[in-house]
């Protein structure tokens, strides 16, 4: 069973991680589970299941920042709300220990 992230989904994972970067000290790890982890992802049907384990206390301002970054604005492939409606992707990702639970990063 192949548990790698499908290439079509990798830009979305990259955008998610870039959106969380300013708060990265609060995360112990971010993990993909569900159909992607099981190698059963179907692009037209499956969702992307992510779980984040946090550490330490969050200030009210940090929680507001988290909500603004992930809930109030949709992620584009660039990790920011696109200004021109496009879905550009610059290929950035976080290598290393911080994303240890996400394969393919």
Structure summary:
The chain is an alpha+beta fold and 105 residues long.
Structural overview:
Strands 1-2 form a two-stranded antiparallel ribbon. The C terminus is likely disordered. By secondary structure, it is of the alpha+beta class. The two termini are 19 Å apart. It contains 2 helices and 2 strands; from the N terminus they run αββα. The protein has one domain.
Structural domain tally: 1
Based on secondary structure, the structural category is: alpha+beta
- What share of residues is helical? 10-25%
Question: How many H/I helices?
Answer: 2
The counted number of beta strands is 2
Distance between the termini: 19 Å
Q: Residue-averaged pLDDT, rounded?
A: 74
Radius of gyration: 14 Å
How large a portion of the residues is in β-strands, by DSSP E?
A: 5-15%
Largest sheet: 2 strands, antiparallel
Shape designation: elongated
Q: What is the element string, with H for helices and E for strands?
A: HEEH
Low-confidence stretches: 77-105
**Biggest sheet: strand arrangement:** 1-2
Question: Which descriptors apply to this entry?
Answer:
single chain, 105 residues, alpha+beta, elongated, disordered C terminus
């Amino acid at each position: 069973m192949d548990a790698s992230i499908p290439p079509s989904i990798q830009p979305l994972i990259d955008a998610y991680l870039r959106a969380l970067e300013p708060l990265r000290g609060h995360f112990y790890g971010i993990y993909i589970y569900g159909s992607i982890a099981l190698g059963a992802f179907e692009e037209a049907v499956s969702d992307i299941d992510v779980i984040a384990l946090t550490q330490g206390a969050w200030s009210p301002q940090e929680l507001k920042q988290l909500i603004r970054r992930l809930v109030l604005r949709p992620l584009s492939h660039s990790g920011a709300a696109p200004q021109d409606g496009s879905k550009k992707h610059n290929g950035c990702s976080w290598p290393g220990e911080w994303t240890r639970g996400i394969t393919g990063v």
